[in-house]
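Hi V.,

You were right to ask for the full record rather than a summary. Here it is.
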Amino acid sequence: MLKAGFARVDITPPLGTTLAGYFEMRYADNILDPLYATAVAFDDGEKRAVIISIDNLGIVESMMDKYRAEISKVCEMKREGVFLACTHTHLAPRMGVWNEDTVFEPEYADFLGKQLCTAARLAFLDLAPAVLSYTRGEVKDVSFIRRYRMRDGSARTNPGWQNPDIVATIGRADETAQLLVIEREGKPEIGIVNFQVHPDVIGGCGVSADYPKFVRDTYEKLIDNSLCMFINGAQGDSNHFDLTLGEDKCRGGYDRARYMGRKIAMAAVSNYELREKLEGDKISFAQKNVVVKYNRGTPEEIPEAKRIIDEYNRTYDAESIPGIAGNPRWAVAKAGRIMAIEALGEERKLPVSAICIGDAAFAGFPGEPFTEAGFIVKEKSRFALTIPACCANGFEGYYPTETAYDEEGYEASAARYEKGTAEKLANELANLINTFK
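Predicted structure:
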């Protein structure tokens, strides 16, 4: 008999904590709303698994491995059954930079590890017999592709509102909200909502979970006696505005985040009464290390990359670096990529992770895959419901599509791994989950 449990613990940092993103050092000066780790535990009588959604930008694999090992120990389960996925909010603590050995907030990292263990343990203590069902809805005016074809044939990320040189977006947005419903005997129902768009809506230096907070809050108001988890999907080339539309479609801020979260939650439950039962009640899980090659810089690029990173590490301000042609943040991203891997070998093993509960599959990318990678996994999966997750059990930056490398642009310049990595990871994930019986 399948059992499921739920827990949510506070992981809000103190003021003054460094925040993630934006290529400049930022410090938390306000708390707009708490950050949480939300755990859903499963037990089929033979195997145990736990999925934890973390309000954080991303946590590098070495730290994830440590957290997963600690959770598996205290919960008496296999490490492969621990699935940690970050929501990718840009208003959470900065956990690392350029390489896996640098941690900006070691005290917070220790605190987070203890809270993740607590969340997992509480979720297992909350187990109750459960049955699964699922549904889907469509979300408009929330997720947009942020890469554009320009009049000169180039590709640019966020080239400016109503830029007259924009020709068209490059790629297709995934506007599907997926919902896994877990009905439990004598306990609140659990809803796991899956959607894909960057949680970089609010801006500033106030701690916040961004729009995922409002997905959870809205769901729990719409469905009586319910609890909600949010899993962010393949969102590496998405944004919350369309630069070709009017200015009202390009704004961010707290109200926009609330608007997005509410729309996602309402779409997820739009067909709630027509949800379909998921067959099966067995748990399967696995992880595969996929060998990929690094996206190395040329010998000619390395000296300039070193100069840029030395300047950046001195000021943590991309805009102040002299002698950069073009966008300084893009230059820092490219230089950071080149220097991070300059002394490494030719290849690296990246972990893809999967947990299946009956006819529902969770497919984890260790970083930010482009939207097309999510489509590949969902379209090739044999499961009735497949939930792609970004920043899962690792955080290794962007995974652009093959064509994005040819077009260059911000994401491909920053991507640490060679052309074709996104498609390789997506196909390996689909193959991995399809091996489960």
